[in-house]
Amino acid sequence: MNSPLLLATVSLSLLAGCAGYGHRAHHPQSGMGMPQDGTMMQQGGMQGGGMHGGMAMMPAIFRGGMLVAHGGKTLYRFDRDQAGSSACYGECAMKWPPYLAPAGASASGDFGLAPRNDGSQQWTHRGKPLYFWSGDQKPGDMMGDNIGGVWHVVRP
Asked: Which of 49, 93, 113, 127 could form an SS bridge with 121, CB 3.0 to 4.6 Å?
């Protein structure tokens, strides 16, 4: 098989393996739109990152000067958190869903994991736990920036 044909075959196979990857779900209590990346609500937070098609994925990327989950949803940090430990539970976590890691996820580069009280793991960036804002409705929204002077969009 020649190189261009092999490359085209491999590329199509990879694309086919990602079919259905962009479904949309909603937060069961708030109706909040979820990232369009197969991310799911679990235990009061949004879950993402991990493995896709056998390849490890970073839980978030910088786009437009801010850190976003794979579906383009903006990620936030909370000033009251300690490094590697969330201070946002209960009603706070309903408004600011933690960005939960799937089972088997592992830290890589600037991304780490912080244990939550319920036993789940929350993604961190440079040690600070990551959250979504329930008021953001679509990718790129950053309505939660500077709420109460303690919630901030994660920037490079």
From this structure: 113
Q: What is the pLDDT of residues 11-66, one digit of tens each?
A: 333 333 333 223 223 333 333 333 333 333 333 455 555 444 433 568 999 999 99
Give yes or no for a contact between 73 and 133, defined as CB atoms under 8 angstroms apart.
Answer: no
Is the entire prediction scored with pTM above 0.70?
no
Q: Tokens 């890691």 label which residue?
A: 101
117 with 89: CB under 8 angstroms? Answer: yes
Rg (CA), the chain: 17
User: How, if at all, do strands 99-100 and 45-47 pair?
Assistant: parallel
User: Does the structure show a pLDDT above 50 at 9?
Assistant: no
75, 140, 144, 149 from 65: Cα distances, Å: 12, 10, 15, 20
Phi-psi map region of 37: left, alpha, beta (phi>0 left; psi -120 to 50 alpha)? alpha
